[in-house]
Structures are given as C-alpha cells and as structure tokens.
Amino acid sequence: MIKPERPLAYIGRFAPSPSGDLHFGSLITAIGSYLQARANQGKWLIRIDDIDPPREVAGAASRILQSLEHYGLHWDGEILYQSQRYEAYRYVLNQLQQQGLSYNCICTRQRIQQANGFYDKNCRESNLPLNHAAIRLKQNNPVYGFEDKLLGYLSADPAMAEEDFIIHRRDGLFAYNLAVVIDDDYQGVTEVVRGADLIEPTVRQIALYQQLNLKIPDYIHLPLALNKNGNKLSKQNHAQPVPLDDPRPLLIEALAFLNQPVIKNWQDLSRDQLLKKATTHWDLDRIPRQGKIYK
Ligand SMILES: [Zn+2]
C-alpha cells in the first residue's frame, strides 16, 4: 500500500524592513501572518529585511521586535537578518551568471523612463564589465500571474512580467526580489502572508524561483490600512508607531480590520488568551479583499 504523502509542515514568516517603527499597517500584516501560521499549527518566523542600509532607521529593528513581543506575537527560532546573508546572495548571483541567466546593465533610470518605463533589454548581448553596472535577470520564462489564496488569480502587466529586472543594484546592494526568494527558500517558508503592496513583484519572484529550481510558496496578500487620502499607512507618510500600553484594544482593532469574528468580553481575557481565541476563530475567507481607511 502506498502511504499518502504527508503535507509539508506549515512555515510562515513576518519580514519587516527596519526603515521605521511598527505601525498599525505593519501590525495588521504581523497579526495576519501570525494567526494564519498558528491556525495551521505552523511555525512563525521573523526575518529582518535589512539589505538597504541607506533606508534604515537606527534602532528600528530592535523596536519592531519589542513591539511584536509587546503585542504577544511570539516567534519561533532564531531571527534571520538579511544583512548576514550576503554570501548566500553572492553565491546565487554567481550561479545565475555562470548559467548565462544574468547580465550587466549600465542604462540610466532616465533612459528607461523615456522608453515606456520598462527596461528594453538594451544591454542583454553587450557583455559589459561589472564596474558601476547593475545586474539583471534574463526573463526567459516570464510568469504572467499567480493564484493568491485570498484574492484568487491575479494577473500581472505583461510588460512588467517580461522585464529583465534588477537582481543586484549598481550601488552594490542586493535587490529585494533576489534576497526575498533566497531567504524564504532557505527558511523553508511554505506560505508568504504579506501586504497587498507586494502583489506586483510576486510574478518576478515566482519566475526567479523557477529559474533557480526552488519550490514556490503559497501566497496571501492582506488588505492595506489606508490613511484618509487613500494612501497606504507607511513610514514615508508618517504613520504613528503602535503604542506600548495595554495591547488588547489595538489587537481587537486589528482583528476587526481583518473582519474576524468578534471576541466577546475580551476585557476579561489576558493578551495571550485573546490571541489564542483569535487563532481558534481565524477565518481567512472573512478577510476583506480591499484596503480600508484607518481612522
Ligand atoms: Zn542596460
């Protein structure tokens, strides 16, 4: 008798960049990914996506972790810092180069914007030296859409999907799309739960998984918390850090934002009891598909 294949144990993650403190918008993503992992009896990992030092805010990484602890979002295992992972990224870059799947590009942003905003593969056959060049992936097998477990099938702008995107920047930094794929694979992440602002690059990341012959995770993109002007709450538009007083009211607010069943008499529950209840009640199908104005 053939034994049925045991499904992979669930591994989820929250991967903030330390470009500012945890605010209500990022708390939504943290709670959503946490509850989805816990409801699936899975692990929930934390990764600090600190590959962009110019955008980093001093002390933000440790304040984010402190906020997560304050809100009772306890993670599993060691925290992974992308700034410690350069060797792994370098290895994959070399691998892609040796397989002829990448090339150096010296085109300016202005030149690309003058075209249609998407890169026209100008340097693909030029064999340029690396000095002051960006490295681009050859998109030989573009991915035009993907199945989101909350939002259904999402298709991408074909021009975006087909673009030879940057995997190593000309300023010497590794590109987010490269690092996120390598690290999610390294950490064994089976499902990526993140904000809807990251829908767009997903097809590029899937294409990269395929180029590297890695297992593609599932995807869930959560609705964004918007300010009164309809913009995403973010560090750039001065979203307030989450307060470090009684965590329960804001947890309740976050659960309401995700349209989860009401927890009655939560005032009588401790923070951890409240999260336990929220895990039991967690219902992915109830989550709104659209971003919502917050305050
Ligand atoms: Zn170029």
From TrEMBL:
GO biological process terms on file: glutamyl-tRNA aminoacylation; tRNA modification
Positions of the Glutamyl/glutaminyl-tRNA synthetase class Ib catalytic domain: 13-260
Binding site for L-glutamate: 13-17, 49, 176, 194
GO CC field: cytosol
Cofactor details (free text): Binds 1 zinc ion per subunit.
Binding positions for ATP per the UniProt entry: 235
Entry cofactors: Zn(2+)
Annotated GO MF terms: ATP binding; glutamate-tRNA ligase activity; zinc ion binding
Signal sequence range: none
Key words of the record: Aminoacyl-tRNA synthetase, ATP-binding, Ligase, Metal-binding, Nucleotide-binding, Protein biosynthesis, Zinc
Pfam name, any one: tRNA-synt_1c
Motif range ('KMSKS' region): 232-236
Family annotation (InterPro entries): Glu-Q_tRNA(Asp)_Synthase, Glu/Gln-tRNA-synth, Glu/Gln-tRNA-synth_Ib_cat-dom, GluQ/Sye, Rossmann-like_a/b/a_fold
Enzyme class: ligase
UniProt-listed HAMAP family: Glu_Q_tRNA_synth (MF_01428)
Function: Catalyzes the tRNA-independent activation of glutamate in presence of ATP and the subsequent transfer of glutamate onto a tRNA(Asp). Glutamate is transferred on the 2-amino-5-(4,5-dihydroxy-2-cyclopenten-1-yl) moiety of the queuosine in the wobble position of the QUC anticodon.
Protein name: Glutamyl-Q tRNA(Asp) synthetase
Organism: Photorhabdus cinerea
